[in-house]
Amino acid sequence: MTEHLYREDAYLRSSEAAVNEITPEGGIILDRTCFYPNGGGQPGDCGSLELEDGTHIPIATAVYSKDRSQIVHVPVDGTELPAGLTSGAKITAHIDWETRYKHMRVHTALHLLSVVLPFPVTGGQISDGTGRLDFDIPEAALDKEELTGKLQNLIAGDDAITQEWITDEELEANPGLVKTMSVKPPMGSGRVRLIRIGEDVDLQPCGGTHVSQTAQIGKAVITKIEKKGRQNRRVRIQLED
């Protein structure tokens, strides 16, 4: 299995690794990586893989293998892989940090948004500096400015973001930890990762990357609230910078 270095250190921008396999499609599988693979509404990281001779292979994204045991680094379309890129080759993986950091800030802001709006989450998406959550909310008027104020108050609290692990059985015994109706927490490996904000601001299963303190999010505003069904409300946020 690929070692997921980003889980222990979301701020890791580069990592040394060895090539495990080149897929028939030209994807590159490493024994360990700082690249986050697409999933849970968060895009896979882009960046590059650097060979020992200094050659850089541009990477468009990272995705899970079909059995989800490995992470595949997908080169930019049209990239010709160098002859030296074979199983066992030593490389250094570099993520596009500016993009990743925005994903981290947005992802943590969306966790706080689920605190501001304590309703079941039916969907979500993270992009470059923006994000959204869909909520199962009964007919009600939602005020963007009021909600933005509540969100910003939580951000300004500068609470620490930490992770902890529980067993599959512990999660099944505490279904209230799961806020998302559309995406089930990754289970089957025997343990599930939880993201905690502060002592008791928020706690929920999540496999994505986050900032270490809420203040690092900066200013995030709610830009749009859309009605997507009788009870479905789509709330969009954006980083001000």
Which short descriptors sum up this protein?
single chain, 241 residues, alpha+beta, Elongation Factor Tu (Ef-tu), domain 3, Threonyl-tRNA Synthetase, Chain A, domain 2, 4-stranded antiparallel sheet, 15 strands
What this model shows, in words?
The mean pLDDT is 93. The chain has 2 domains: 3-95, Elongation Factor Tu (Ef-tu), domain 3 (Beta Barrel); 99-239, Threonyl-tRNA Synthetase, Chain A, domain 2, CATH 3.30.980. With 241 residues, it is α+β, with helices and mostly antiparallel strands. The protein has helices at 5-8, 97-116, 144-156, 168-173; strands at residues 3-4, 14-22, 28-30, 32-33, 47-51, 56-64, 71-75, 90-95, 121-126, 130-136, 161-167, 191-197, 202-205, 220-227, 232-239. The longest helix has 20 residues, at 97-116. Helix 2 packs across helix 3.
